[in-house]
Design brief:
By secondary structure, the protein is mainly alpha-helical. The chain has helices at residues 44-58, 65-77, 81-92, 100-110, 120-136, 140-155, 165-174, 179-189; strands at 7-9, 16-18. The protein has a two-stranded antiparallel ribbon. The N and C termini lie far apart (46 Å).
Length: 197
């Protein structure tokens, strides 16, 4: 099966580029945004330029996983969770080797609020996405995120759930949880870290 090369214009300088390129060879601007780290330090103006460039390419390639991930991360950076979520969900389709769209879709469902304030059906969907991410790649960050959900929603509302947040927190530590993982989670969630986690 041949892989299609998607061309677009560099959001910064307008040069013709491809989604296969990491950055523009003329201005050094990022082209293929594959992680949140690629956009986290961008200004809203830079992110908007990225989105406009990707959206033009999506007219002809609406189901491209790379384009959907890039647009999703841009919307996510702008805290436009309702627009980011469908893009992450499109990127999930037939993409069972990348846990990132599952993780970030789960984060989008919280909409920048604490899990405690989120309705139970939404929490169930979040846990479904976390489990999918864990099945693809059991990262400590994903266990820790699940521990946070089980603490802030289930434990604080006195729901008895198995595994509980303490078990999941222990699994995260056993899997190699670092302070960097902890800081990353609360940075993307936009909420304060509970004292017990």
């Amino acid at each position: 099966m041949e892989c299609e090369v998607i061309t677009l214009k560099c959001p910064n300088c307008g040069a013709p580029v491809s989604m296969k390129m990491e950055e523009c060879e003329y201005c050094g601007n990022p082209i293929a945004i594959k992680t949140y780290d690629a956009v986290k330090d961008m200004t809203p103006l830079q992110v908007n330029k990225q989105v406009n460039s990707y959206r033009q390419a999506m007219v002809e390639n609406p189901d491209d996983q790379g384009l959907n991930m890039a647009v999703a991360f841009c919307f996510f950076k702008l805290k436009m969770y309702d627009k980011a979520l469908p893009c992450f969900e499109k990127a999930m389709v037939d993409n069972f080797d990348n846990p990132e769209p599952f993780f970030y879709a789960a984060v989008c469902l919280l909409k920048g609020k604490k899990a405690f304030l989120t309705p139970r059906p939404v929490i169930d969907k979040i846990e479904e996405y976390i489990n999918a991410a864990l099945m693809i790649e059991p990262q400590p960050l994903f266990y820790y995120f699940w521990a946070y959900i089980r603490y802030d929603h289930h434990f604080r509302k006195s729901y008895r759930m198995n595994p509980n947040y303490q078990t999941l927190f222990a699994q995260a530590k056993q899997a190699g949880l670092t302070m960097s993982d902890v800081n990353k989670l609360y940075s993307v969630l936009g909420v304060e870290r509970p004292s017990c986690l």
